[in-house]
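hey so u asked for the seq, here:
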Amino acid sequence: MLPSLNEIRKKRVSLGFTQGELARLAGVSQSLVAKIESGKAEPSYSNAKRIFEALDSLHAKEEKKAEEIMLSPVFSARISEPIGKTLSLMREKGVSQLPVLEEGVVVGTISENAVLSLIEKGYRMEDIRKTSVREAMEPALPQVGRNTRYSSVIQLLKESPAILVVEKGKILGIITKADLVR
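ran it, structure tokens below
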């Protein structure tokens, strides 16, 4: 089902395009776009669909990409290092989770929540500090490419505290929920 025809003008204006530009992209006449926007014409379904598809493609081009909102560099933990060292790095850098690497490959995540889970299980903090990251790590954060659209990033962050921006196995950046509200 297509959106209401009233949405055409709103979307076009919010994207900063003229009626002529939208018409060219949709393969219709500028006068048809003007008549639809003024309520003086009812387009065929196929013309309305082409106009909405053109608006969607314009929106996708305007949408930010992951590389534009990611933070870099990304600090990480090694799987074999003690949690105490990792906690010191997290405190120093002001982060609540780090990707865990083994031979340069992301294998998990270490977070404040993982440490809290150990405390909840009865571990003493002095023992936790000596425990290896391997023993407490959680599954790896989701990974996306640098050109992943903002809307996709938002959907992933609804399910995960952060996502990694990766290219050819190399971590380029990280995006957290806090980065989207800055």
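The first helix runs from residue 6 to 15. Residues 6-62 form a domain with the 434 Repressor (Amino-terminal Domain) fold (CATH 1.10.260.40).
lmk if thats what u needed
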